Structures
1.
Amino acid sequence: MLTLITFPPSFSEPSHSPFCAKAMILLQMSGQTWEREDLANPSAMPHGRLPVLRAKGQLIPDSEFIQGWLTTQGADFFPDCTDEQKAIGHSVIKMVEETLRNALIHDRWLDDQNWAYIGPLFFDDVPRPIRKLIAGIVRRSVRAGLKSNGFARMSLEQRLQKVENDLNALGQIKGASPFILGDAPTAVDAAVLPVLSMIDRLPVETALTRVVRSKDWVGPYLQRGRSTLYDGLA
């Protein structure tokens, strides 16, 4: 049996991490028999990150590499899609896992009101005497990363404009279809749904959640995606 090593669930999401949730959805789509193994500290894992798939005596890190391995085992994550649609889908995944994911990270880790909920939950497994210290160290590291890539250096208005640009592009690609590339979910939805869903389920409403919810297509898409792709996960 395949084992997905993943961060635990939180806030009605299958995992803290959108990449872990993505990997779970891909495993469900693949038809493979699998189980989850929750891990709070991934420092001993390849790349020091999660998700990691334990499969046939090897550890496969990163949701993109997990998708690739499952494809070699016969999974089709783009059913009935043309090569052009697959290329568009690949580009959409990269777009969502860049700006929109950075926006999620920003409001989870840098917004003090959300951090008041996020910090205690994400570091619940750390011994209480050092929990606040460790959480603070990791939070500062996340802040430094967002400053390094420029996202945390932008004004609120600039961050929201980038988010709005991505949401408008996503809405145009999706059109009237139930899923991003058409009538059936694909690997694109495995990436898009967790990011949008985790923004929508931030503990405290922010300007980011309001922008995401303001798009007419997002609410129905989240409802459809959660009922279809999160079934048995969350």
2.
Amino acid sequence: MTVRVVLADDQPLVRSGLRVLMADHPDLEVVGEAGTGAEAVRLVGDVSPDVVVMDIRMPGMDGIEATRLIMAGPATTRVLVLTTFDEDDYVYGALRAGASGFMVKDMALDDILAAVRVVAAGDALIAPGVTRRLIADFVRRPEAVPERSPRPVEGITEREREVLTLVGRGLSNTEIAEDLFITVATAKSHVSRLLTKLGARDRVQLVITAYEAGLVTLPR
């Protein structure tokens, strides 16, 4: 299945380079380009891509605000943030806005292509080890998760609750399978059902849900 991609970056050279790179891969198709966040939002409404590769610093509307508007819309598009800047505030801002991944432009080109495919498949880009540190810090911030009682998670089985807890701890499907003495395929199926039942776009949102539900305690 072809992944339809919109490239949003204010540097034409970057967009051109990514377009040429993806042209060599038949499973990736660039269906539009945007030089501002506002253009990216309009393009998503026009062509409904699977993934937007989104820069952060752009004139006018930045990539974080554009991501927030895209995620609030009816489209099922996912956003992969690709930026020169990897400061924590940008990472947290992208996660709060609903991005499914965060990468920097100096990474290997093959890794960027792999990231597009991962996000298109509905998973989060953040590796399990990074998730443990990043999400724990993210949800500790007052602006990320307001002070409130744990929000109960309803409509899932006890086994799915166990899987959600382990996802919240940052475990991969393989690690979940080992912990629960099930196959990796079964662990993956449980995660997929959780995504559907909880209306989560990706694994990052499942992690946040686990924290909000009190299934995972924050490190002190």
3.
Amino acid sequence: MPETVSSIKQAAEFTGLSEDTIRYYEKIGLLPYADRKASGHRTYSKHQLEGMVFLTRLKATGMTLEEMKRFRKLYEMGEASLPQRVSILIEHKNRIQNEIDRLLETQRMIDYKIDTYKEVLVNPDLNKKWKSPFAD
């Protein structure tokens, strides 16, 4: 990652965020406003780019914008807020694990139905006993 980028377009390319998303995140206070050149164009430091990448990762895990804003404010408070940040991340990790568990259970049910359908295809006589595709 470069030390600085000299346009919002470059920041978008490096972070995977759209230019509109970067502007919106600045507007709602999720990102600090970018520094500006004399021409008025935005410039972003390596630190700002890394922060944007971290936000994309939090968002990808389902963290809300409000939760991300709270986390960012705690980050700005420095080391004193580390226990709170760890707590937020642990809580978020637990929510993700619960969602993974739920999805794995759903996957097991789908696998069961696929196996049942395949069995009926191989043994058509079973179809006569089979009442509903949603049963079991």
